[in-house]
Design a protein that fits this description.
76 residues, extended
């Protein structure tokens, strides 16, 4: 079972904690935050798939599940 009310509360608190940390690092300046974000993004290029909608995500997840099922267990 996933994502009960308690889970959402815990995750929500974590999101707010991270938001507060990032805001403090940028001196609570939105322009500075986005400048830092752009610089970070250029240093950490994304090389994985880009998902545009739920249907693409479902196809990607199904493909990864199929690959996992094809994996052979380690010998030993």
């Amino acid at each position: 079972m996933c994502c009960g009310l308690r889970d959402w509360k815990v995750h929500g608190q974590e999101v707010w904690r991270i938001k507060d940390q990032l805001a403090a690092e940028a001196g609570y300046d939105v322009d500075r935050f986005f400048a830092q974000f752009r610089a970070w993004s250029e240093e950490h290029l994304h090389d994985g798939p880009v998902v545009h909608n739920a249907a693409e995500l479902q196809r990607l997840a199904a493909g990864e599940s199929a690959l996992a099922l094809e994996d052979k267990p380690p010998k030993g």
